[in-house]
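Input chain follows. Return structure tokens only.
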Amino acid sequence: MKEPEQLRVVSNQDGDTSLRLVAEPAGQVDLLEAVVSAAANPAVTKPAYVQLANKRVDLRGELAFRTDYADVHTSPSGAFPPEVIRGLHIAWIINDQVHVLTLESPDIVWDQSKERFAPIVGQLLF
């Protein structure tokens, strides 16, 4: 079986901003079901996950969903203060696979990080 994570890029500037591409078989699940489940959005299983927005978007003529969310990362030992992590992902189905492109970044650098997401989405090839 293929590994679902196809790509992971981590910022060399802050070490916490990441971009991931995941592809998993869609099976009988429609896109909205995949987006609200852990299949397309593993962050939903985290206790501090909060969905900020979820909307339908057009991605090169294909139906896609854009989800904005926030999460709070805490260190298991409590040695570091909690950190708010912002995220956004675009999910779409093509060739019977759910694809999810996710950007996560600390809230303190979120504005700079999210500016880089649209150009990357614009370069996606199907």
